[in-house]
Amino acid sequence: MSILENKVIKIEEGTKIREYLKTELGLSTRLIRSASLDKRIFVNNEAVKMNRILNVGEIIKINLAKDESQDIAPEKMDIDVIYEDEDILVVNKKPFMVVHPTKSYQSGTLANGVINYFMESNQNCIVRLVSRLDMNTSGLIIIAKNQFAHGMLSKEMSDNKVEKRYLAIVHGNLEKDSGTIDLPIYKPEEIEDGVKNGIRRVIDERGQRSITHYKVIESFKNASLVECKLETGRTHQIRVHLSNMGHPIYGDTLYGFGEEEEDLIKRQALHAYALDFKSPRTGEMLELKSELPEDMKELINKLK
Fold first, then answer.
1. Are both 81-158 and 163-303 of the same fold?
2. What's the pLDDT at 66?
3. Bridge partner residues of 241 (DSSP)
4. What's the confidence (pLDDT) of residue 106?
5. Which of 16, 43, 46, 176 is deepest in the core (most CB within 10 A)?
6. E strand or H helix that includes residue 271
C-alpha cells in the first residue's frame, strides 16, 4: 500500500484540508476528489471530508492505492528497468517498439510488457505514461504508478523541469562543438498546396518555438556523435533541427537518407539516454542514464 504522509507544520487559522492539499502538497483537484470519494484521505488516522479544518501538528495520510483496470493485455517480455520506487518506474525502451497499443499495434508494445511486469511483481498499477518516444527511438521512459506521481511529473514535464538528453549519430562534422538551435517547428496541414503531408514537421515561422542545445561528444571521418538537450519537447524536434543544420541523423527515413543506409542501421540512430528530474514524493533529484544500444555501437564502429 502506497501512503503519502504529511505533518502540518504551519497553517493559517481556518484552512480546510482541500485547500491545504492543493496549495501545500500540489495535489490536483481530480486526485483530491477521487481520494475523498473513496475515503482514502485521513487526518490523525480518521477518514475526513474536504471541509475539515486543519490544525498545526496533525498528520495527514492519503492512500494512493486504487482499484483500477486498463484494456491492455499483459505480455511477458524482457523489460529493462533502470529505476523503480513506490511511485515511478523508469525503463529503457528497445528500438522498434511502440510505447502504447494503437489500432495498428495491438500487442507487443511497451505498455503490454509493463502491465505484465506489474502483475508478476504483485503491484496493482496501471500504465500511466509520463513521457513517450517514437517507435524507432530507443531510451528512457517514465511511467507513473499512481495518480499522484503522474500529476506531479506531468506538470514538471509541461514546465520543462525534466531534463531530457539524447545521443544522436549524424552525418558530417559540425562547425561548432556546441551550440543552441532555436527554430520554430510546424506541422503542415494534411493537404497543403495540393501535396498530401503525413507526420513530417518543418521549420516554419508559423510553428511553435523549439529549442535544442547540442554538444559534439566524438567526431569521426564524416560523422559525429552528438548530445542533444531539449529545452522544449516538440514532435521530432531533434530530427528536424539536426536535419535543418545539414546534419541529418543516420538511418532517419523521414528527415535524412535512411532508406539508403539500411546496411548501416535499420532505424534513426537516436537514443534518449539521460533523464534528470525530482522524485514526486521526496523532492530528491534523480539522475538516470542508460547505455547506447548495440545497433548504435555497431554503427559507430562502422563509421570509425
1. yes
2. 84
3. none
4. 85
5. 43
6. strand 270-278
The contacts of residue 194 (CB under 8 Å, 6+ apart) are none
pLDDT score of 105: 87
Taking the domains of the chain in order of start, what are their residue ranges? 3-63, 81-158, 163-303
pTM (two decimals): 0.89
pLDDT score for 264: 93
Q: Which residues 6+ apart lie within 8 Å of 232 measured at CB?
A: 160, 208, 209, 210, 211
Closest CA to 32 of 40, 297, 217: 40
Q: Residue 54 gets which letter from DSSP?
A: P
SS3 21: helix
How many CB atoms are closer than 10 A to CB 254?
Answer: 18
What the block records as the C-alpha cell of 221 is 571521418
Catalytically active residues are 134
Q: Say what the pLDDT of residue 103 is.
A: 86
State whether the Cα torsion 19-21-23-27 is positive or negative. Answer: negative
Q: What would the CATH number be for the domain defined by 3-63?
A: 3.10.290.10
CATH class assigned to 163-303: alpha beta
Q: Which mean pLDDT values do the consecutive 10-residue runs of the chain (304 residues) have?
A: 89 94 92 93 95 95 88 94 97 95 90 96 94 95 96 92 96 96 90 61 95 97 96 93 97 90 94 97 96 97 92
Helical spans, DSSP H, in the chain:
17-23, 29-37, 110-120, 147-158, 237-244, 294-303
CATH number of 81-158: 3.30.2350.10
Q: What's the CA gap between 63 and 36, in Å, rounded?
A: 10
Could you tell me the three cell numbers for 210?
A: 523549439
Q: What are phi and psi of 42, to 5 degrees?
A: -125, 145
